[in-house]
Amino acid sequence: MAALITSRFAALGVLFGLALGLHGQVISPVLDSRKSQPPESGIYDRNGFFRSSPELKNRISEQLIQLRELHGYHIYLVLEPVMIGSTVQDLAEKLRSEWLPDGDGLVVVFEANSRGIGYGWDLCSIDFEDAPLRDNEIPTHEISGIIQRSVSGLSVNVEAEAYIDALMQNIVRECSHYFQQRAMPLPEGRNRLMLLLVVVVTCILIAISFLLGIILRRFGRIGQLKYRFAETDATERFGAPAGTSAVSRSFKDD
Asked: Does a structural domain hold residue 33?
C-alpha cells in the first residue's frame, strides 16, 4: 500500500514537473549542474550520446582542448536527447552566461531527437577602438560568419554522430583560422592603403549612380514625347475599298 502511494506521488511529481517545464520554469536537466564547473573535456554528454563511438568523443574533445590551450577560447558541446519546456537556443544562451561570463567562448547545444542546434555566444563582443577585444575573444560578427560557414555544405542525411563530428571540426578549424589571421601583423601602410581603396571605390560607385540617374531620366523624357502629324483636308469616302483620299506632294527643291 505504501509503495502504491509512493508511486502515485512520484507520478504526480513527474506531471507537475512537466507542467512547470511547459511554462518555462524547467529548462533542461543539464541546468541542474550548471553551477558546477563546465566540462573539462569540453563535452557534456549526460545521456551517453557517444556511448557507441567513444573514440569520436575523444577526438572532438582533443580538438576543443587544443583550441583552448592555444588561443584561450572555450567551446562547449552539450548533447541532450530531447528538450522539454525550452529550446536549444535558450539553453545555449543560458549556459553561455553561466559558463562563459567573460565572453571568451561558444556553447553548442544539440538535441538528438530533432537535430536542432543552438549557439550561445556573447553578443556584446565588439571590437571598438577605445575598448579592443582581449586576445582570446572573437567579435560577434565573426562568430556569426564562422557558424554560417561551418554549417554550410553539411549533409543532414548522415548519422547524428557524423553530423556533429563534421560540425565541430568546421567550427574549431574556423576559430583557429581566425586567431591565426588575427595574429599576423599587417604590412606597414596597409591600413592607409585599404582606406584609400575604400574611398576610391566609394567615389566610383557614386559617379556611376549619378550617370545612371541622368541616363534614366533622359530615357524617361524620350518616352514621354508625343508625335503629331500635320492636319490636311481630306474628304470621307464611305464604303470605299481604300479609305479616304490621298494627298501627293512633290518634295523636290524649288
From this structure: yes
Q: 38 is in which domain, residue-wise?
A: 22-183
89 domain residue, yes or no: yes
The answer to whether position 216 is within a domain reads no
Residue 127 lies in a domain: yes
Q: Is the pTM of this model over 0.85?
A: no
Mean pLDDT of the chain: 75
- pLDDT digit string (tens) for 175-215? 999 999 888 865 555 555 666 677 777 778 777 876 776 77
- Indicate the pLDDT class of residue 228, thresholds 50, 70 and 90: low
99, amino acid identity: W
In tens, the pLDDT along 214-225 reads 776 666 555 555
- The string over 201-230, giving b where at least 16 C-beta atoms fall within 10 Å of a residue's C-beta and e elsewhere, is eeeeeeeeeeeeeeeeeeeeeeeeeeeeee
Domain total in the chain: 1
DSSP 8-state secondary structure symbol assigned to residue 33:
G
Q: What 3-state class would DSSP assign to 243?
A: coil
3-state secondary structure of 120: strand
Q: Which residue has the cell 560578427?
A: 141
CA distance 13 to 253: 111
Cβ-defined contacts of 228-233 (< 8 Å, 24+): none
Q: What CATH number corresponds to the domain at position 176?
A: 3.10.310.50
Rounded Cα–Cα distance for residues 125 and 147 (Å): 16
